[in-house]
Amino acid sequence: MRNFVSYVIVMLCLSIMQSCAVKKRTDWLYAMGQDSLLNRANYGLKIMDMDKGTTLYSLNSNRFFIPASNTKLWTMYAGLQTFGDSIPGWSIAEDDKHIYLEPNGDPTFLNDEFPEQRVFELLKNSHKSLQLVLPENTAFGRFGSGWSWGTWQETYSPERSVMPIYNNMVRFYKEGNNFKAIPSFFNNLIEPPKDDDLRAAYSSVLRAETSNSYKVQKNSNRNSWIRPFTRLDNDTLAYMLLSDTLGRTNSKVRMSIVHNKPDNLIFSPVYTVATDTLFAKLMKRSDNFFAEQMMLMAGKIRYGAFADFGTISKLREDLFDGILDQGKWVDGSGLSRGNLISPEEFVKLLTVIYKGKDFERVKRILPHGNQGTLQGLYVGYEANIWAKTGTLADHLGLSGYLKTKKGNNLAFSFLINNFRGNASDYRRKMEEILIWIIECL
């Protein structure tokens, strides 16, 4: 089987090299514009040589498309320009009797992907009274503008929050005939399963839409035991979860909520994780929750307040003036169909990154060929493509960098909207086109 795959790759490369020799660039790209599959959709493509500053190809590149998770490129750049080399997850101050702790929206807190929990270790070992500084009001909702209705219990769209904890999700497990939760705070909120549900080969835990009430029921094909929790019926849920967790490790911990920071104390940042580590996870697997929290954190750190629209508006003025001139940008993750951005604007952003100090960083953060959301694609071209994917129903996108076999450094943005048919066919068509560019330009 391995020999057969190698044979197919070799034959594909030979076919591409023959097409390079036979077809002129203009003829090949013209033929692409006549492609029967692509012409059943709306699409735009921009390819630019970043060293020469010349456009190699442009089709519908000034038109606006729903970019899906390509949107995360804007969030990534804002984060890299805001946080430095480490994420300032919390702000902290102390006096003789109290520790004041202000969350900055860090999604790594008590997230088991990040075993080093400096803030939690500090809190559980403290002999002082803990004062958690939480704002009474915030300028953002639980979900982003234009997100699909009905995704409130999907793991790809947990609620956004000032103080994420446990990834804002509950994990369930089976113990004998009982279902239990991590964190255990939710154990008493699980409706006892019926006998038929317990005997089923597969089961799911479903959450009520407006409360943290969980019900076990049988499933036909898989176990689904992870659900987001909601703060809709309890604004202090994060505080209660932290208090419960701390109480299980140190029964003497005393904690309360305050809404205003003391004027006479200076708060210092507590750095929780390397910025590149977090953004690599975010971009390689296209993590919507991390992206949304990074957007909120950028607003908190740069402008002093949690907001989504307010942060985006200010970022457009501060970081993206002359880059994102007309496109519509509404969330951090790209889950919203309200985002409308052109390939031209993506290529402008990619060129700014290329000419700045963070290009090598960004290459390490983005998926390369056959990695992350590009797994199984661009096999053998791991050193030639670094790009962010985007997928919503009937919408695809890919924007990033190409290093051609001739040594040219290209930026590209390829956005496809409103197609009908199999998304994998369109991904393979994009792959075919971009591999030709790598081999021939």
From TrEMBL:
Gene3D superfamilies recorded = DD-peptidase/beta-lactamase superfamily
- Family annotation (PROSITE patterns): PROKAR_LIPOPROTEIN (PS51257)
* Keyword Isomerase attached: no
> Does the UniProt entry include the keyword Hydrolase?
yes
Q: Name one GO biological process term.
A: proteolysis
Q: Domain of life here?
A: Bacteria
Q: Which GO terms describe its molecular function?
A: serine-type carboxypeptidase activity
Q: Where is the signal peptide?
A: 1-21
Q: Which UniProt keywords apply?
A: Carboxypeptidase, Hydrolase, Protease, Signal
Name any one Pfam family assigned in the record.
Answer: Peptidase_S13
Q: Which SUPFAM superfamilies match?
A: beta-lactamase/transpeptidase-like
| InterPro entries recorded | Beta-lactam/transpept-like (IPR012338), Peptidase_S13 (IPR000667)
Q: Which family is it part of?
A: Belongs to the peptidase S13 family.
Q: What is this protein called?
A: D-alanyl-D-alanine carboxypeptidase/D-alanyl-D-alanine-endopeptidase (Penicillin-binding protein 4)
Organism equals: Sphingobacterium yanglingense
